[in-house]
Structures are given as structure tokens and as C-alpha cells.
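Task: fold both queries, return C-alpha cells.
Query 1:
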Amino acid sequence: YIAFDPSLWWNDNGLMAGAPARLRQGWPRPRRLYLASSGEKQLAPLARDLADLLARHAPANLAWHYQLFANETHATLYHPAALQALRHLFKPQ
């Protein structure tokens, strides 16, 4: 999975509220997540909160990576983050 500046504010932060329980359920097979955020003041703290939550609650079969692009905005994040996400998720084993 790839998430850039995810809408964690949506539904009154409902995704974050339900995340610990969902993470405890786990998945039957391994998953990978690349999470990136821009440096926008409204969005970056939410993504950092998700990364902190993943650090505490991620199941063993979830490999995840968080990257902050502090000099990017929501509008400019896609191109640099997409390149890094693809390089990270599809690097040779």
C-alpha cells in the first residue's frame, strides 16, 4: 500500500480512532505500507501520529515505512514521494 498525505482527518479522525483495533486483528498474509507526508502544518502531524501508532501496534506481518517530505506541500508531494515509494517497495531482495 502507498499513502501520501492520507485523509486521516476524515470522519472526525475516525480512521485513527479505529486503527489500533484493526491493527490488532492483523492480516492472514504479509502487507507492506509506504506512508509519506508533506510538511503542511495541518497534515504532517496526523501522518506522524499514524507512524507512531504503527510503531506501537503494527502486526509482525506489516512492514511499513514513514517518510516526511518537509519541503513539499500537498500539491507537490506526489512526484518525489512516488519515486521513493516505488524504490522502497520494489527494491531487489
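Query 1 returned. Query 2:
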Amino acid sequence: MGIHKNTNKYIISCEEIYINICQYAYSGGNGKVDIKCGYIPSDKELFVEFIDSGIEFDPTNTEHKKVNLPLNKREPGGLGIFMCKKLSDSVKYKRIGNKNILRIINFV
């Protein structure tokens, strides 16, 4: 089994989510991020799950700012989440207790 054709998409999506957690979840302080990867054969679902106990934030409910504008006319933020949603088959969020749980799903 070789490298899946969408490997770069997975890597970009994961990197964007991880960076967002590092920059925003803990208000500039230190925090922990657990990352779980898995495959569900019956659903042909490859997933990466990010779990943090930072500030509650549901990226599935974010509006996409004007991503077609030139960089110098856009407000910062939102592009990484936009890219993750576009590059993934599904992005799911839930909050359990004090944990943000974000799952990026791609079907293979």
C-alpha cells in the first residue's frame, strides 16, 4: 500500500487545526493537545481527532470571511479553518465536559 493520493490534504488540514489550537485555545499560555488517528474499515473512514481543554470553540460554526479578497484587504484569521473544511470530507466538533473534540474525516 503506497501513499494515499490525498496525503497532502490530510497534512495541511491537521497542521492548520493544530496551529489554531496552539495559538488560540489557551490564551497565550501553555496547554495540552491529544491527537488520535484511526481508520474505521466498515465506513472506509480515515480520521484525525484533536482533543484539547482550551477555550470552547466550534470551528464548524465559523463564517468564512471574504477569502477571495487580496491578502492586504482581508482581516486575519479563518483561512486555516476554511482550508481544513475544503480539504476534508467532513469536520465534526463536540464539546464534552471541558474538552474540545474536533474530528477531521476523509473517506478512502
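Both queries returned. Flag for query 2: The chain has two helices and four strands.
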